Amino acid sequence: MRLTPVTAGAPPAFTLQTYFDEKTWYRQTYTPEEFDGLINQLNVTEQANADAISAIEGSRGSPHL
Fold first, then answer.
1. Domain membership of residue 54 as a residue range
2. Quick one: pLDDT at residue 63?
3. Can you tell which superkingdom this protein's organism belongs to (predicted)?
């Protein structure tokens, strides 16, 4: 799947929202604005995984931190 940016005058581009809206299993829980306003967008397990990945990358001197 390739995502293309939207440019002026161009036909509507494929977006992630379009992709998910077309899926029968997808049910939107939050609007984009509500999601951006959440204090913590990750649950406890997701945050623990993110912390573990960050610690491993930090210990390896990753330039992506």
1. 34-60
2. 84
3. Bacteria
